[in-house]
Amino acid sequence: MKYHLFALLISQLAWLVPYAQEKHTPLTWQDIPDWKYTRTNDATASPDGKWLAYVSGPTQGDLALTIKNTGSQQQYRYAIGGQHTPISFNEHSSFVAFYQSPDYKTIKSNQKAKKPSRKKLYLISLKDTASIIFNNVQKFDFANEHGGWIALRFESIAPTAKNDTTGRGTDLLLYNLANKQKFNIGSVHDYAFNKSGTLLAYTVDAAGQNGNGVFLLNLMSGLTTLVQNDAATFSKVNWNKEGTAFSLLKSKKDKAYKTPVYTLIGVKNIHAKNPEVHSYTGLQEQEITAGYGISENTAPYWSKDLKRIFFGIAKLEKTKADSEKAQDAKVDSLAQKVKVASIADSSEHNRDSVAVKTASRDPQKSTVNKKDLEKPDMTIWNWQDKRLQSSQRTQLERDKKFNIMSVWEIGANTFVSLADSNLRSIRLAPNEKIGYGLDFSPYEYASNLDGQRFADVYIVDIASGTRKLAIEKLYLNASFSSTFSPTSTHILYYNDGNYYVLDVKTLAKTNITKDIPTSFISDTDDHNVSKPATGTYGWTADGRFVLLKDNYDLWKVAFDGKSHTQLTDNWKHKKLIITAYNNIHPDDEEIDLTKDQYFSVIDDNSKRTGIALLPGNRNKIDVVTLEDAYFGAVNKAKHTPAYFFTKQTPTVSPELYMSTDKTLKSPVKLIADSAKQLLSAGSKLISYVSDHGDTLQAVLYLPANYVEGQAYPTITYIYERLTNGKNSYSLPAYPGGGFNRAMYTSNGYAVLMPDIKYKLNDPGMSAVACVVPAVKAAVATGIVDEKNVAIHGHSWGGYQTSFLITQTNIFKAAVAGAPLTNMISMYSLIYWNSGSSNQSIFESSQGRLTTGYWDNWDAYARNSPIFHIKNVQTPLIIMHNDKDGAVDYTQGIEYFNGLRRLNKPVVMLTYNGENHGLAKEVNQKDYAVRMMEYFDHYLKGKEVPEWWSKGIDFMALPKHLEERAFNATVTNE
After folding, report:
1. Helix crossing, 348-360 with 320-345: angle to 10°?
2. Angle, nearest 10°, between helix axes 763-780 and 796-804?
3. In CATH, which of 3.30.40.10, 2.60.40.2150, 3.40.50.1820, 3.50.50.60 is domain 680-824+876-971?
4. What's the angle, vertex CA 895, arms to CA 894 and CA 896, rounded to 5?
5. To 10 degrees, the CA torsion angle through 792, 796, 802, 807?
6. Which residues does 328 contact at the CB level (< 8 Å), separation at least 6?
7. Is 464 exposed, middle or buried (0-12, 13-18, 19+ CB in 10 A)?
8. Distance CA 319, CA 296 (A)
9. What is the pTM of this model?
10. 570-591, pLDDT tens digit by residue?
11. 96-116: pLDDT as tens digits
């Protein structure tokens, strides 16, 4: 306990420690590829908690995997090449398996040559570290609970399949962990162990489809059972949770359809000599809707009572010949009806019409020019379309894969479609006898305009597919969470500031929070959303209670609303907030309050974070740790009380701890700080008052060479609310948005990140009201050099940056990444990444405007940078890419050309072919280097880069890129 108090005191005062006594060498962009760190997020503990495996190594280069004994901390290291690997322990914690890839340079070379980089599998015995290596392994799995086997599927050495009969299967090796015996099965395409690990279901896909089928191997007896043979492809093997039945799909070519036709297969009574096999295709119109078939895009699964199988159906596209044949049949039928009608009418005009129609079907007699039959390449946009044509086009692939949830009742051999194009998905109750679905269609047109989303909620009977309207026009922007009780009798949902429980049988609705003396409306959500919810963690396992958050406290509320218990000790006065539920019981479908439960917490005043524990069968949450650090979620070893968590600070990279005490006492550090050097001297939390009168906070990250009493050049980085990350560590990296905090603090900059609170219809002005006072408060600390402050933001932060420099001259330089600059023109443009319009973003999301500009012109103009462009005196870099699918490229062009016309200092960087952020590493490097060169010039007085002062040929690289070490890295791309 004394140690923790001392550590807490040190961390709280960290920002005061003068680090100038240590000689600091700033990081360069050339250092990033060699920066070594531990991938703590992917660290994996064995089920018995006695072993921990994790990967470490440089950002770009060859990695190592460490296996550490958590008791003795004895460790073993293995070189794993240039690629990260999944890590897997068997159920008995006696073996660990992982991949070894080729070295980093070889992987990069193979990528350029479009060659595969084949992997080796290492299988390590934890008893004596004896290892066995398997080459060219594509996939591996331990045999679940039984844990006596490992299955290895190998890469195909043959050329890529060119037709449907080449065969997609490869060798599958079964290795017995106890006696080291090996069994090879050829041409395996798909496989899966059941829960107990005693059975293996696998499919064969051989050349020429010879011997294709699905098989069941009993790993205890060695007996293999043929489930089904066919000249077809079998895939998507899917065991039920209990491991007592499995289902899969079979596909065969059908000349009537462009894509294979799928058959559903269900297998149960798996321990019988001849397992029970059920097959269903349902192509007949009386079974599945005409034109539909079983979908390939979902894995079918058994109901819990093994009486039905759930699966998806999708449209089947007919081949051209078959489609034309069907069309001809329709034309013949129509022509015959018209002809009969015309004869009966004895009309000369009708007889002529029939003659033309019938003649047009005969190529010999047709007078229609072939060119007239060609379709123009065009799109019709209609104001009545529920979805914009751009949205339909963008979402075409998703729509093609859309499948309608359906069920096959095996006993009655009946098909039931549970969803359709309006009720697109069904959420099943735990008993799988009912479900609920959301029908957006009555409100889809309006919601695609203003972003305010509503839906009707229907209760669906699984056996018949019949529906009952349960909730009409439920407002989804406030909360999208609606969940069944474990008893399947009730649904929890949120509406108009309160939580309700719906009785699915009577459809009665009970307001369960009206008598609780608190508000469940979020205090911090300042979007144009009516009464946004604070959040819920769902039902308790017994179905009697739900766990609901207000803005600070956690409540256990009875499902009938007759009682409620405050689980937190009046945290509103302490300003403590639960930020997340840590699920240490992954097999539990709901929160079991008879077991210990963990939550992540934050002190909203100090931004200290920690972990809270709700002991089993208790009604009071205890904070077990709260420090001036950032804690990750708690994880528990599967079979033992060993608890793992990470902790980091701005000065210490993520470290991993283990405690065998549920209150996390006396934790053992298993992974220490991996940083090679100090990147920041800590962080300071600043309180300030905005121009709107709100008390807000900002985080000031100190430069690594910080000396008390000295002022430093400062980058102000903005988005929305950022202070909850006060104690986070920044990893040096090439950023997609250009800015990396660690690189700047390492290079002698302070970094300021303020919170922004918004008023509706004033997003830009709100940023000014919050950011400018934050900068002044930071200057008042003496740490920030008032004459050398810059600002940067990307996307929404880019918008605010481009707006702020029209309202204030406190910034010496600015960089705006992908900024929207004209709210009026941007409002009706397309968000190309989804194909939808920006209107909904303005009216219900980040734009925080309440109507279109025609009814709110002053607000749109007042908050648009372009309308204040004459005020700009701050030098500006705009980064805007020509394929930006979020903020239209024309926004950057409009602002750049306006500033250029006014002879304002501005440069726009466009990375051709890139989207909203930078994905290509060479572009990430280029932008990061140019940004720092620019800030170094304006804030540190360094030499002005020529690309800024004189313009630049598009082929030229910045000075730093021409250095040999950096250029070598670029060359490797």
Report:
1. 160
2. 70
3. 3.40.50.1820
4. 95
5. -100
6. 361
7. exposed
8. 18
9. 0.89
10. 999 999 999 999 999 999 999 9
11. 999 999 999 999 999 999 999
